[in-house]
Description:
single chain, mainly alpha, two-stranded antiparallel ribbon, 1% strand
Amino acid sequence: MAPTPNELWQQGSGFFSRLKNYYAKDVETAPLISEQAALLCEVLFTAFYVAPFYLSSTLRSTPLQSRDAPTVIRARVRAVGLTCVACSVITVYVLAIPGHCTPQEVIRLVGIWPVDPIDILRVLGLVMILYVCSLYETVIVDGEWRNWSFASFKEAIFDNWIGYRNLIVAPITEEVVFRALTIPLFLLAKTSPTRIVFVTPAVFGLAHLHHLVDFIRSRTPTGRRSPPLMIWLQGMLRSTFQFAYTSLFGFFAAFVFLRTGNLYAAIVAHSFCNRMGLPRVWGKVGQVADYDYVPVEMKGQAKRDNDAHIPSPPIKVGNSLMQDEDGDVNKSQASTSVEPKNLRLAWTIVYYLLLFMGAFGFYKMLFPLTDSRNVVARF
């Protein structure tokens, strides 16, 4: 039977032996670099990542060109790619100084190798437990599963610059810079794993405050030199909230990286969380009747049916049928207009039950599903 991660750590073989001895409290080993030097590198990496967005006119968002414009996204993708290269050079240089780490240990410390698909699936399963309520609302209540296909997947990610940025580029580059290239430097500084988890994500959260500039610029009226006070207040509130939840995710991503030594697991978790967004914490699910929106496909189908004098079938909006109180489809409404009805309260009750169950399940499974034989540091 293969040894467990705890047994490998206690036996101290190979990479685990060096790391265990380096962290051993009864062994007087001076840190290879200072914690201040590691923190300085992280701040420098953050500046490398964010500064180009505002120093270059090509990457800068304006009231006439938002950060979601394809030209801006393409330019920023190139910029963060160069940032990853520059930060990699610095980290590898520090790690590979004679006496610090061997080339094999450098690859191991940055989480590139070994690649363990089981760890990736376990971490993905863990975040899916946390987001079980959002999956329920998105997949079942809103009926997203009806649109699942390879073509829709390709269109949402690879044919859409916003999807490509949010689900591919941002997770990869942010995890590389703020986890794979930063955490090993704190390990060299003999920073405790707990301190790494709670210190490094703070800079990660601060790195997202630059969205405040984008928000204010995009909402400042053209020709006005300074934005209104209300725009500033809205921007500050949004940025404070964004700092809070990005820092919380940073805690989790750093924890996963240390527990699994797997960069790919952190990237997959990051991409999944970007896709799901924040779970709903108030309001009802399946409430579509309050929105003045009718899909173009429905309007077109209703018009064609009217022209051909074809009785219209039940039209689904989200997960509900347009039905009268007696259960029959109101064909006059279906053929001339779309008036969706909201789902009953029971759907919302199920959602909030899943919200609490998912949070509890995440808490209970946090350590079991991140236990790996490729552990970098034990808590």
